[in-house]
């Protein structure tokens, strides 16, 4: 073989090898649309920080089968219309391989039609039962449902002999979905709703609604909402000297709620993910080491952990495992592998998904907790 031909062949081989290396290192694009600012920022901010923390960690360990993760995210500000616009941009312009997001139920529900049309695997971080019930082909979720939360609250009320309940809810998608589940489940637990009040999630005073509740024969108050509004409700109840037991939804299961409500939060009960009381779990609980490790890593960089950041952890690692099993980014294969997730121990619980179950959590994912001396205390 003459020298010129040998050099040509060697150059071609180098080019082919180099192209293969570049192709192998092409990033896996994960798109996220989150509520990082606005009234629900205390949900979306820890979700984004968690995704950034663990994407960096995964990439430092070689990525997914040699391919780095590229996280592309947008802040919806809690605006469902913006959520739709960003979801379209992520799928059509950024060409992401998978979607994570929908901090709020309103954002998630708004984008579902577009996700189903485009055929992109989507893992939601929101709670509304309608997100995965009925099952949608491309949509999954990692947050326990509002139906599960309502059931856990009613179970606790029954134990305490509370049968007459005053309901107050906000005007967001999460609040409205929770209200629907409460209305649907109340009779099954022999609960009578003696009031059904509402407020705007941007309202700064709910004393008018609570004054009406005070005039009823309610034995307890249930506020189903998220953001800052439930803290205002809690403080208004104390200001009005209403001494009824107060329940909230899992939408405020964070240290932020206690800080916002101050001393008025004492005695509040709600269902929460085990992350809130990780140290109080028995050592035999399979979630405990996962929760403590996440908490240690997150708090070392960002400060106090929250269950909402945990949703970011669960979604990312369910996606990572599915991408590894799919051996690539073919969207249909990744979707199928997410659906086949079994025994994944996350921060929200142990996930077992299937064709008719795109959430995969059981009722024991929630722990009933109470605020005692300014911290969450596990009750069961």
Q: What's the number of extended β-strand segments?
A: 14
What characterizes the major β-sheet? 5 strands, parallel
User: Which consecutive residue ranges, at least 5 long each, have pLDDT under 50?
Assistant: 5-24
Radius of gyration, in Å, reads 23 Å
**Structural class assignment:** alpha/beta
Spatial shape: globular
Query: How many structural domains?
Result: 2
> Which percent range describes the beta-strand content?
15-25%
The CATH architecture of the largest domain can be named as 3-Layer(aba) Sandwich
Count helical runs: 12
Terminal CA distance: 80 Å
What's the CATH first level of the largest domain? Alpha Beta
CATH topology assignment of the largest domain: Rossmann fold
Strands across the major sheet, in which order? 2-1-3-4-5
Short description:
This protein is 44% helix and 18% strand.
Task: Note the main attributes of this structure.
12 helices; Rossmann fold; 14 strands; alpha/beta; single chain; 380 residues; five-stranded parallel sheet; four-stranded parallel sheet; 44% helix
Give a verbal description of the structure:
The protein has helices at residues 3-24, 41-60, 80-92, 105-118, 146-159, 173-185, 207-214, 229-239, 255-261, 287-302, 307-326, 331-339, and strands at residues 28-34, 69-75, 98-101, 122-124, 139-141, 164-169, 192-198, 220-224, 246-248, 269-273, 342-345, 350-352, 366-372, 375-378. It has 380 residues and is an alpha/beta fold. The strands form four sheets. A five-stranded parallel sheet has the order 2-1-3-4-5, sandwiched between helices. The longest helix has 22 residues, at 3-24.
């Amino acid at each position: 073989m003459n020298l010129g031909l040998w050099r040509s062949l060697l150059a071609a081989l180098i080019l082919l090898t180099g192209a293969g290396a570049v192709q192998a290192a092409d990033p896996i694009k994960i798109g996220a649309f989150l509520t990082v600012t606005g009234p629900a920022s205390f949900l979306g901010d820890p979700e984004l920080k968690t995704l950034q923390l663990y994407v960096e960690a995964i990439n430092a360990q070689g990525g997914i089968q040699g391919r780095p993760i590229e996280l592309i995210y947008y802040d919806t500000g809690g605006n469902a219309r913006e959520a739709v616009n960003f979801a379209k941009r992520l799928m059509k312009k950024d060409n992401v391989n998978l979607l994570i997001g929908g901090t709020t139920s309103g954002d998630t529900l708004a984008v579902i039609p577009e996700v189903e049309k485009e055929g992109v695997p989507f893992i939601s971080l929101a709670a509304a039962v309608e997100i995965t019930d009925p099952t949608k082909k491309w949509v999954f979720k990692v947050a326990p449902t509002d139906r599960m939360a309502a059931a856990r609250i009613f179970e606790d009320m029954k134990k305490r002999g509370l049968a007459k309940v005053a309901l107050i809810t906000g005007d967001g998608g999460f609040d409205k979905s929770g209200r629907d589940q409460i209305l649907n489940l109340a009779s099954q637990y022999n609960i009578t709703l003696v009031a059904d009040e509402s407020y705007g999630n941007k309202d700064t005073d709910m004393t008018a609604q609570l004054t009406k509740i005070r005039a009823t024969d309610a034995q307890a108050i249930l506020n189903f909402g998220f953001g800052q509004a439930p803290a205002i409700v809690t403080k208004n109840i104390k200001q009005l000297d209403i001494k009824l037991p107060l329940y909230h939804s899992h939408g405020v299961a964070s240290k932020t709620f206690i800080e916002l409500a101050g001393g008025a939060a004492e005695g509040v009960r709600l269902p929460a993910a085990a992350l809130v009381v990780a140290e109080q779990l028995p050592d035999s609980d399979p979630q405990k080491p996962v929760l403590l490790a996440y908490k240690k890593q997150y708090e070392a960089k960002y400060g106090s952990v929250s269950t909402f950041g945990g949703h970011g952890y669960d979604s990312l690692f369910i996606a990572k495992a599915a991408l590894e099993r799919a051996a690539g980014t073919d969207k249909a294969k990744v979707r199928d592998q997410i659906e086949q997730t079994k025994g994944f121990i996350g921060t929200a619980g142990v996930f077992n998904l299937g064709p008719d179950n795109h959430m995969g959590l059981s009722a024991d994912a929630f722990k009933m907790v109470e605020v005692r001396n300014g911290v969450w205390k596990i009750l069961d």
